[in-house]
Amino acid sequence: MILKRALTVLSVSSCLTIYYSQEKNIDTVFVFDNQMKKVKLFHSLTTLSPADIQKNSSNLSEVLRFQSPVYIKENGRGAVSSPSFRGTTAQQTAFVWNGININSQFLGQGDINNIAVFGYDQVEIKSGGGSVIYGSGAIGGSIHLNNDLSFNQGFKGVFNSEVASFGTYNNFAKAAFSNDKFSFKISGNYLISQNDYEVPEKNNYINRNGKFYNTTFNIGTAYKIADNQTISWQSQFYDATQNYRILEESLNKTKYEAQTVRSLLSWDINKSKISNSLKAAYTEDNFQYYGNFGEPYTSGGINKNYIFKNDFNYFIIPKLNINIIGEFQQNKGEGLGDSGIRNVSRNIGSTAGLLRFFATPNLRFEAGIKQDFVEKINSPLLYSFSGKWKANNWYSLNLNFSKNFRFPSFNDLYWEPGGNINLKSETSVQADMNHEFSVAGFTLSLSPYYMKIDNMIRWLPTSLGYWATFNTDKVESYGLESQLSYQKSFNKNHFIKLVAGYIYSKSVDLENQKQLMYVPLHKFSSNVDYQYKFLRVYAQGMFNGLTYTTSDESRKYAIYPYFVMNAGLSATLIKNYTLGIKVNNITDTVYETTAYYPLPKRNYSINVTINF
After folding, report:
1. Distance of CA 338 to CAs 114, 290, 334, 342, 499, Å?
2. What is the pTM of this model?
3. What are the backbone angles phi and psi of residue 344, rounded to the nearest 5°?
4. Which run of H or of E encompasses 478?
5. Could you read off the pLDDT of 453-483 as tens digits, one per residue?
6. Cβ proximity of 542 and 524 under 8 Å
7. SS3 of 353, please?
8. Is the dihedral of CA 101, 105, 111, 113 positive or negative?
9. How far is CA 185 from CA 60, 100, 180, 231, 235, in A?
10. For residue range 340-369, what is the model confidence (pLDDT) as tens digits?
11. E strands, 491-575, where?
């Protein structure tokens, strides 16, 4: 029944495009996530360019920690890492690759340090719910890993090589070619680090067996089969190994290996009143855990996902737009070794409708509704409403209200022992209001928010001696996200950019009225860039407030406030050659984001970039 409903929506919305022939202007840039432009009409996003990512090139955790409102919980540099938006958990954050939700079907979340850091054209961070468009897990927020392809740009290429502390070597290369009909882009990255840092102040901490390395390969191509039709393909191949820290050299050395394949084929039609994007995607996530280097894997898993998605968009009149999205996917999982799970599979279908009304150039509204059909799981009816009003040249107001959800993962349902096939989906209702003020080149945004989560899924100990999953918690989260930005070019030779953000997060378990673990009450971050002719300088600062690591708000075990600062300098000495140096943790701060796993003190890197 699920398959029939989903395929019916797909076929109807696909066939509608055949009957229209009005054209619109040809885009010079093709974006794989066709919803992103619409999302930006109603929501504020943090957008990071490849140059921004290069500032924190060790892993995606560092990028998000210093350049976004997200709190990153990392078990030591390069190890297991998870995000927290607005006081939620990692399972309530959606990772979206070119419009496709890529959260693990086993875990229901993404491990940030097993997601490639290079190879994207933008990384965009959206706070707040987004399940109507981006599916399960988009409760606290979503992290978007986007690629695009340009036309009529000829040949371009870049090579970057970096040498850093702790035996770290990072190399990245990208090449692209395009003409008026064809576009092609390819990139590759290899990163290896011995990662053997020490923090004597933390009980003589040594990151023994901390080595990690990964390889990423990206390829994308697009061809205009007509003035208003494009066929495109984007793929990513990722292979990684993380060693897990051990306390003594005499103990067994453990490691975790991961292999990821993501491939997306898209047929897009764009005309003046109508557009349609038909996508077919395949994603595969494999992992193996080794309890001892010299022995076969102890446990692991194979997850394969087949996804079909159609996005139909039609302007009924110039001011009124209807958007229908249909999706079907099949998820397959296979446990390896002592993983506690065997062969499982499920079918998922969904249909969503959005209506957008552009009342005036300065006033617009969007309303959305969605129903998911998850095999053997009851799914709630989801909805969203957004409105944006630009009152004058210096003030604008944005309102958002939505219901979002997360359905249980394979582990939640089927792990033996402890899985629970009777679990309900987590649901949340939330609202936020964004006030934006623009004066003298400065832009200040203030976004208070409120969220209530029901049926949160938790693993709890049982009387039988093992842990099991239950729908237990009700969580209330509220707070404030704010950002001040400024950028200006002057005297033709100078450019300055400032982005600073402050976040207050209160996230309370309604059963015990305590702050959730690993949700800091306060976080402040700032990034300053300055360029003079061939010289560029940047500085980053991040303050993290008191963070509880236990459910009873024990200050004895809490992570106390800390401040970390990074800086970098680069110079283009010859036309296409740039040399740079970075100093991370200039203040030599002793800090951790997960209890007992301190992150490195002051460390350095040098890099060279060649553009051709």
Report:
1. 22, 11, 12, 10, 47
2. 0.93
3. -140, 160
4. strand 467-490
5. 999 998 888 888 899 999 987 999 999 999 9
6. yes
7. strand
8. negative
9. 22, 20, 15, 15, 11
10. 888 999 999 999 999 999 999 999 999 999
11. 494-509, 514-515, 522-532, 535-544, 562-574
